[in-house]
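User: Need the bound-state model for uridine-diphosphate-N-acetylglucosamine:
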Amino acid sequence: MKKTVLVSGGAGFIGSHVTVELVEAGYDVVVADNMSNCDMTCFDGVTKIIGRRLPFIRMDFCDMEAVERLFSDYQIDAVIHFAAFKAVGESVAEPILYYRNNLSSFLNVLEAARSHGGCNVLFSSSATVYGEPDETPVTERSPRQPATSPYGNTKQMCEDFLRDAVKAYPEIKGIALRYFNPIGAHPSALIGELPRGVPNNLVPFITQTAIGKRECLNIFGNDYPTPDGTCLRDYIDIVDLAKAHVCAVARMLDGRMKEPYEIFNIGTGRPVSVLELVNAFEKVNGVKVNHRFAPRRAGDVTAIWADPSLANRELGWKAERSVEDTLAAAWAWEKHLAGK
Ligand code: UD1
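Assistant: Bound-state model below.
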């Protein structure tokens, strides 16, 4: 029988790409989102890509009654939880908002999972939990560092909620995927990243500068102790990242987990500097990205990239797309948005 996967926050950037990959892998998917940080663009894009409209529930995961109803209305075999606020700077300014939203929505998911006889829970975590690592690349055994923002703290706390829930309630199994820097867009250019206002993240800022929406990209810091002085990150293609979720869900549903709570790094294992990324974007797309060096951004770490060998081995997953193809997809998406 077909298994049903609930995707909370499924209308957003990562959720929409994961939804497409789950459908293509043969799962029934239920999408739920409160639309607090997106519009229907990506959900409509998903409909076009897969050729049919999936069940969509507009709801807030902080509303326990709504979460209970959802778990009663559908026989959910696994839930992938994306529904959360994600702007680091905003979380510093509005910590209560971030704690209330990100923590209570996940607690509600865990509580509903438990009260409905158990469930497989996949939590979308982040490399931010490693802070400024002492050693790179980081493995899942690298220590978590004290969070530098309420956003980062909610990722750590939700990981702990899942670990402790799994320990206490055998009917719940959990996987946390720690993403490095997800970038790019679906090859169809029908779904992609849709930041509201001025983008915080690098690639949307690059594409908006290239298309003329922003005047100039500020490269935050060129005096870091790295080969070219700019920060090093592990940029992971969004479709590759989405496929890791399919592998993780299958592992849970097929009873292949080695522990009831598992953590995997989802990255390429390849460090790329900010300057290298800008240069690669210009080269592959044949466009100029007006840029200048600016002071360091508070809270940025110098260098972090993944050791993805655990995910490679255990999930049977590997990042496949080149950074050039990913940057071409990001540009195609920006042009699609601009109607070009
Ligand atoms: C950020 C968050 C991280 C979150 C992730 C989600 C911080 C400190 N970290 O990661 O918690 O999980 O986004 O994708 O905000 N850069 C520029 N100019 C820009 C924008 C970025 O030079 O206009 C540089 C940054 O200094 C950094 C790199 O580009 O070196 C990547 O930045 P970004 O895309 O914001 O991701 P992170 O900061 O790594």
